[in-house]
């Protein structure tokens, strides 16, 4: 469901927690890295989830501060200030994901440890030394998933009713369902194997089709399929390019392939056959120039490490940093300025004798040439 464009929200709780999805297909959908260590939180620890006693605040990350899920008001309200200062928005329990967010996932909010003491702060840090994740998202196939480490988000209804609580879940559901809300209609859905291609690549197109009674279509071929190039012109398609039913996938699923010869935005369309009130289903993809740098964006860790070692002073161990430390590393670098002494002075040229003789010689040469060619 998620791989085909659906959205799933996971809400942790004391009875149902993400570590119960370990060794199941749902584990891959979670945006956080759960493990069996999450269960070992120490029943005798007064700071553990089994016996919480320290209140904490939810602090949106840089991404979360501009994400629609945490934008709880249409008015000009700062989400960071709202979550940090709203009356009664303190929490005591959360699911503590020791592994943090997965690679490629985004943490929308974390535990605010800035106002906690050193001893208290240590009980809210994961194995990476980062504050525990509160809200996180990740893409899965064509769909999206959302994770909440809190089971009592409803506390934001206190003294506010559904002003913020309703907006929170409304935005969450809308964001999770974006793929299914955009493009296409209720009967036809166009999908591609990628959203971005390189010039000359072939797009694999999959179409899910229903008949007028919203049952899987049984025709062997689909009519009404078209492709618009970046200039808005229709590509010439052969009869063999018509979407054909995928026998392995079953009824209602059709596939075809289209070569993308130049860069720009392409639009795949399907006009429903026969008289119908359904709109045209469409899907847009981007085609880029096929440069070597764009084709392979994976980092060459060996070369990067060699570069770090080669550019460090002799006798010093190279300060290798993790990717999640780059932001703090950039801020710790000292700014260096280079002073240049400029000796600016004006030297008049027209007052020099050699300039006068040079101009006179040029004019004389011109007169001699014109005289010889009888141009005067």
What does this protein look like?
Helices cover 20% and strands 19% of the residues. The chain contains 9 helices and 13 strands. β10 (244-245) and β11 (253-259) form a beta hairpin. The model is unreliable at 42-51 (pLDDT under 50). The strands form 3 sheets. Strands 1-5-4-3-2 form a 5-stranded mixed β-sheet. A 4-stranded antiparallel β-sheet has the order 6-8-11-10, with no helix packed on it. The chain has a 4-stranded mixed β-sheet with strand order 7-13-12-9, with no helix packed on it. It is an alpha+beta fold and 376 residues long.
What characteristics describe this protein?
376 residues; alpha+beta; 5-stranded mixed beta sheet; 4-stranded antiparallel beta sheet; 9 helices; 13 strands; 20% helix; flat
Q: Report the β-strand fraction as a percent range.
A: 15-25%
The total count of strands amounts to 13
- On the 0 to 100 scale, the average pLDDT is 81
Largest sheet: 5 strands, mixed
**Could you give the order of the helices and strands?**
EEHHEHEEHHEEEEEEEEHHHH
In short:
The protein is α+β, with helices and mostly antiparallel strands and 376 residues long. The chain is 20% helix and 19% strand. Strand 4 (133-140) and strand 5 form a beta hairpin.
Which SSEs are present, and which pair or pack?
Layout: E1 7-11, E2 58-60, H1 62-66, H2 79-85, E3 106-111, H3 118-121, E4 133-140, E5 143-148, H4 162-176, H5 178-181, E6 188-192, E7 196-198, E8 202-209, E9 225-228, E10 244-245, E11 253-259, E12 264-270, E13 281-288, H6 292-295, H7 301-310, H8 326-332, H9 353-372
Parallel strand pairs: 1-5, 7-13
Antiparallel strand pairs: 2-3, 3-4, 4-5, 6-8, 8-11, 9-12, 10-11, 12-13
């Amino acid at each position: 469901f998620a791989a085909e464009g659906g959205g799933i929200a996971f809400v942790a709780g004391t009875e149902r927690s993400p570590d119960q999805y370990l060794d199941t297909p749902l584990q891959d959908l979670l945006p956080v890295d759960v493990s069996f260590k999450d269960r070992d939180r120490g029943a005798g620890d007064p700071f553990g989830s089994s016996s919480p006693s320290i209140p904490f605040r939810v602090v949106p990350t840089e991404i979360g501060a501009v994400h629609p899920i945490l934008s709880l008001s249409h008015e000009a309200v700062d989400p960071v200030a709202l979550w940090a200062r709203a009356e009664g928005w303190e929490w005591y329990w959360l699911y503590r994901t020791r592994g943090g967010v997965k690679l490629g996932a985004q943490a929308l909010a974390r535990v605010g440890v800035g106002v906690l003491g050193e001893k208290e702060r240590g009980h809210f840090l994961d194995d990476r030394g980062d504050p525990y994740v509160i809200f996180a998202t990740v893409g899965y196939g064509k769909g999206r998933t959302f994770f909440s480490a809190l089971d009592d988000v409803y506390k934001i209804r206190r003294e506010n009713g559904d002003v913020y609580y309703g907006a929170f879940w409304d935005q969450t559901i809308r964001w999770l369902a974006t793929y299914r809300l955009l493009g296409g209609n209720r009967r036809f859905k166009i999908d591609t194997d990628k959203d971005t291609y390189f010039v000359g690549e072939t797009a694999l197109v999959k179409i899910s089709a229903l008949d007028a009674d919203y049952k899987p279509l049984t025709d062997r071929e689909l009519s009404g399929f078209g492709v618009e190039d970046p200039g808005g012109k229709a590509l010439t398609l052969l009869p063999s390019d018509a979407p054909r039913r995928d026998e392995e996938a079953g009824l209602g699923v059709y596939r075809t392939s289209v070569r993308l010869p130049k860069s720009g935005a392409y639009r795949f369309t399907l006009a429903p056959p026969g008289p119908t009130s359904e709109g045209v289903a469409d899907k847009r993809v981007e085609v880029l120039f096929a440069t070597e740098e764009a084709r392979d964006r994976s980092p060459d860790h060996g070369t990067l490490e060699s570069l770090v070692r080669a550019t460090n002073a002799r006798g010093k161990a190279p300060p290798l940093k993790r990717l999640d430390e780059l932001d703090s590393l950039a801020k710790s670098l000292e700014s260096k300025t280079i002073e240049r002494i400029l000796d600016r002075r004006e030297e008049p040229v027209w007052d020099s004798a050699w300039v006068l003789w040079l101009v006179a010689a040029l004019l004389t040469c011109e007169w001699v040439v014109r005289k010889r060619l009888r141009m005067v």
